């Protein structure tokens, strides 16, 4: 989300936000927006929020039926718990511009608010809304890696606190005063701050929780999807949202920016085509001519993650290649994690973490310097004659972001576990989180048999009152 520092000529409209921000020279450049820019960013923020639907469908489709409601509830709480903490302190630690800010953490604008008389009100709320849509997305990435064995109450605490894991490194990359930004790092839409951070947090979560009961008793082969149609529908929604994710990160459409919003959308699609080809080749080769649903899904998602950092800095063929390689990294590392007995039910570590690292590094190799945008600060990637500097900064960004997110997540979960156990009890995991945490009972998935065997661990009288979903006869008091 590099802001375009070459601003268009101000309009004569009295309510042009650019005119207003120029009255306050201390305001950071990210607030230098016209009305058209604000409209573009707000609209894209609305679309990005629909990605929560995509994550929910994808993750619920990947887990067993007895846990599908639980994973949807986690995606639900991520929005209002993570959104609240982003308003309370997250935005401040990324973009706060008081005199106390420094290259490692922002400061100011806690519990964000503004008065109607503030000439910067529109720009402030526009930037906040757009950035909050990114923050909630980064938090949601982690939920899939914790699926089917995480205590819901502990997860709520984690969701409330996980904002800080994302917001501090986001400030490093995107804040005017962030140390990586000052060094010249380029990450337009978040391969690093969103996906590397989310993916490495997912890895830490999977390690802290340990594998699901019996996951590797019969080998490391992938588990069957609970609802493949849900998973594919989730991909379609995420695909749609990604266009807003990347195109919206030009931070407007005025001046030269409108050219690059269109280019970002096309390069995003081309990269996903390359990822689709790789996913198809991989699954046909690995499965002797059969196509596994999850291979195609994660191939496309890995390619989208890979192109996000430099979405409008590439040529068409470069975008296809970057997506192709990103999908390959995703597909190969998923079974590798299972071989290591790291149980990530939806592949969040591979899709977001590993492909995100490639996406950040790819900028240092393939990025071109747009002549009318300051996105790369005049630098180009190694293969465009730019030398090693940009590649080195991009590699440093990967190291900083992955180290921070992995270690801070491990520490957060360790502290939460001291208060509320982060893992379900074995008998609760066998019954399923839907029943034991949400009183949702499924038929035909073995829950009734497990209840009979494990009856002494539960209040049988209470559980006998829980009716299976889909059995409502239409009369409220008919039993």
Describe the structure.
This protein has helices at residues 17-21, 35-49, 51-62, 68-95, 121-145, 152-161, 163-174, 179-183, 191-209, 228-247, 257-286, 293-307, 316-339, 348-366, 389-419, 426-431, 433-438, 447-453, 460-464. It has 19 helices and no strands. It is 61% helix and 0% strand. It has 479 residues and is mainly α. It is globular, with a radius of gyration of 23 Å.
Protein structure class = mainly alpha
Write the element-wise H/E pattern from the N-terminal end onward: HHHHHHHHHHHHHHHHHHH
**Tally of strands:** 0
Query: What separation lies between the terminal Cα atoms?
Result: 56 Å
Number of helices: 19
Keywords: Ammonia transport, Membrane, Transmembrane, Transmembrane helix, Transport
Subcellular location: Cell membrane; Membrane
Region (Disordered): 1-21
Transmembrane segments: 40-58, 79-100, 120-142, 154-174, 194-213, 225-245, 265-284, 296-315, 321-340, 347-368, 388-416
Brief digest:
This protein is an all-alpha fold and 479 residues long. It has helices at residues 17-21, 35-49, 51-62, 68-95, 121-145, 152-161, 163-174, 179-183, 191-209, 228-247, 257-286, 293-307, 316-339, 348-366, 389-419, 426-431, 433-438, 447-453, 460-464.
